[in-house]
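Researcher: We plan to redesign the surface later, but first we want a full-length starting point. Tokens attached.
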């Protein structure tokens, strides 16, 4: 089975659209997301445009603030402080990566945790670690929702996550653990990656290497969630997994594009609505 993330995301977006309609009828203002983009990284520009489109579709207000790459750390921190204090703003997202002269750590720490729709603030990270209610990072959240939608129960399953980033690898591992999976986090220093991946009931790949995982890494009837967004030798979008090589071996797999990507944006919209409700009761 090919997991159609685009279609599943669209269904969720339509539900969120209804939620926003209910907000329109009952509140004096709409949920609002502010996205800050610094510099002109082409991938970031595309991501930000997609976020704006997602907001428009659902009926969330959005504001994209763009600065050139000379914008200073101090200016950015001041801007975040103003948005933190702006009662009409529910979600603040600073697009990563940031230029080298700006500390990612300082910036992520500066965002009010109840407006941190990325779920990257230490307060939200700690809550996720503790299994407490928090704003959860969008890509990991989207993956768990996909598994739910295909009625896959993680209880007692072997999950192998390849990649240990704060954005994807670590949080998705915690979420799977919360669902009673046995979780392994593998990474660039892992020995015998093939052997470890081959025991996975669910393999999650987030390493950014085009078509790295072929059938030798995959157990028969595994579920494969491919987070990679890469270009292959023909400049075509592809995942970390060699889709054609593994598709007949797996129980289910997310394609690239059209798998995890659309879910990430949708979860951002959901987090923005969640932040709105948390702040407005
Ligand atoms: N850059 C790539 N992915 C992300 C993300 O999930 N959030 C932010 N803020 N920047 C990103």
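Model: Full-length starting sequence:
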């Amino acid at each position: 089975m090919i997991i159609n993330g685009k279609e599943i995301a669209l269904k969720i977006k339509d539900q969120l659209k209804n939620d926003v309609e209910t907000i329109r009828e009952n509140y004096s203002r709409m949920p609002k997301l502010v996205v800050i983009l610094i510099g002109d990284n082409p991938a970031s520009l595309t991501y930000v445009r997609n976020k704006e489109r997602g907001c428009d579709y659902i009926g969330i207000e959005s504001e994209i603030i763009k600065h050139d790459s000379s914008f200073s750390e101090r200016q950015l921190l001041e801007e975040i402080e103003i948005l933190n204090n702006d009662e009409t703003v529910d979600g603040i997202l600073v697009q990563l990566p940031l230029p080298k002269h700006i500390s990612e750590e300082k910036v992520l720490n500066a965002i009010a945790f109840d407006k941190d729709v990325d779920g990257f603030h230490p307060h939200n990270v700690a809550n996720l670690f503790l299994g407490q209610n928090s704003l959860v990072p969008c890509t990991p959240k989207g993956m768990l929702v996909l598994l739910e939608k295909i009625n896959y129960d993680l209880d007692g399953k072997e999950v192998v996550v390849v990649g240990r980033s704060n954005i994807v690898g670590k949080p998705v591992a915690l979420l799977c653990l919360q669902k009673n999976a046995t979780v392994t986090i593998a990474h660039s220093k892992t020995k015998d990656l093939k052997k470890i991946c081959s025991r996975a009931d669910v393999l999650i790949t987030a390493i950014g290497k085009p078509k790295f995982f072929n059938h030798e890494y995959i157990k028969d009837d595994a579920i494969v969630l491919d987070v990679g967004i890469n270009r292959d030798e023909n400049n075509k979008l592809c995942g970390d997994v060699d889709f054609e090589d593994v598709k007949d071996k797996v129980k289910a797999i997310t394609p690239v594009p059209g798998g995890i990507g659309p879910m990430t944006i949708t979860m951002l919209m959901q987090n923005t609505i969640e932040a709105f409700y948390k702040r407005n009761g």
